[in-house]
Amino acid sequence: MSRIHCRDDEGVSLILALVVMSVVGIVIASLLTFGASAFTFSTTAQSQRSIVYSADSALQGAIANSRYVSLAGIANDSTNCAYTPPVVNGVSGLTVSCLGQTGSGGSGGNNALPNAILTLATGTQSEGMTFTGGGSADLYVQGQLYSHTLISNGITVHVSNSDVVTWDGTAADNCSGSGISMEGTSPGQKHCGDPNHNNPDGKDPLLSPASSTVPGTPSAAQCLSKNNVVEFFPGKYTAVPAAPAACSAAGTWWFSPGTYFFDFAGPKTTWTPTTDLVAGTPRNWDPTKDKSPPASGDACDYSVGNTGAQFVFGGGSQLSFPNSSTRFEICATLTASAIPIAIYGVGTTAQALGYDGPTSCFTNAPYTGEDSTHCALLTMANNSNKPDLVLHGTVYAPKYALNFNFHNLNSESGFDGGMVVRALRADISSSFKLTTPLFATGTSRDAARDVVFTVRYNGTPVLVSEVQYTDATTGGNPGLTEKIVSWSATP
What we know:
The protein is mostly beta strands. The chain has helices spanning 12-67, 348-351, 360-363, and strands at residues 94-100, 115-119, 129-133, 138-142, 144-147, 151-153, 156-160, 164-166, 180-183, 190-191, 222-224, 229-232, 235-237, 252-255, 258-271, 276-279, 309-321, 327-331, 341-345, 378-380, 388-392, 394-406, 414-415, 419-428, 439-440, 449-457, 460-470, 481-489. The protein has 2 domains: 54-109 and 446-491, no CATH class; 110-440, no CATH class. It has 3 helices and 28 strands. Strands 2, 3, 5, 6, 8, 10, 13, 15, 17, 19, 20, 22 and 24 form a 13-stranded parallel sheet that branches. A 7-stranded mixed sheet has the order 11-12-14-16-18-21-23, with no helix packed on it. A 4-stranded antiparallel sheet has the order 1-26-27-28, with helices on one face. A hairpin with a 4-residue loop joins strand 11 (222-224) and strand 12. The longest helix is centred in the first third of the chain and has 56 residues, at 12-67. It is elongated, with a radius of gyration of 34 Å. Mean pLDDT is 86; it is low at 34-43.
């Protein structure tokens, strides 16, 4: 007889519980996977936004940083416009590069200094840029004045369309005083006690002499124009130049184009020219026929295509301008791509090439006047006879001080290529009536600076912008306007 088995729900609950737990486990696992993915996406998006914001901030910083630096982004420049962005939103790995486009800055881009005067002395308030005088003496400058220490002026200094920068910022610094008058169609600004010591405008440009090798023995000087003119030739002079006996009374000395290295004995040997002196390619006269240069106008040719002259001073050499109505005019070699240097005082760069450096008499600081242990490279006595002092080109002497007494200068006088020196002292009397710039930067800035900035994240470009800056024509008042030509993200 078959036995009937009764069926009930015993054990079903356990099965259902296992099924539910399995389903819930699958759902939870799916939700956890989705949540992890969503979290990863959110974190990535947030990180990308931080990179974009930081890159944008870096680009704006670079553009602002270059606006007021006249050398930033001139043709082919990738150094002066460089910018190191700060870490923003915790994002590191950002870099900013730049490149000045072809023609950026125009003809005054690569062949002109940003400053009419740059003094490099540091560490003492008694050296820097010192202007003294009396009566109604005024000094006119076209181009930036930049001192690593101070500007001390007892006269009115008229600065046209350019900035004035000092690092000192103490009571001894007259930068902020009314004695420095900011003038012109686009007056510059005063940055007194400026902490931005990384401004390329204030750095030693480390210029090299025209000849990368020390010149050899020069050819003997010769008499020209019926013994009225003496011609000198490029080379190394270990003694003060002298005329041949046959033309010792000649009224004009002509230094033909080339590099002249004056390496006189120390501690100091002074050369004081007492005749008219012209160096470079002649203009408006012929040294082989004419007795002397014209009474007015340039006597040497300072234009592109003509070879000029450069006077290099080392050892114990000093040049002193006399109290006489003579002409001293040098025309450097002017090109579109290099700073034209008329007078070069040997510094670290030239010493590395084999040029003899200055004796300690010239490097001892501070220089407060001429004495047995403190010497200036260029000096000028109290001139009462209206000499012509014309330097077409830059004075580059970063280890030297200059000391001038400007009195009764002829109206043609001027330093039109700017200067870079350790210190400058200039005393200007009320008889000084020069209302044109005595100191200027050089070739005018005749085109905007056109710069392309690129922001990279870990080496990959993320933002690119082209910017144009309009400067004052002197180049000494940069960043009058700023124009964003393009701004784009790279894929």
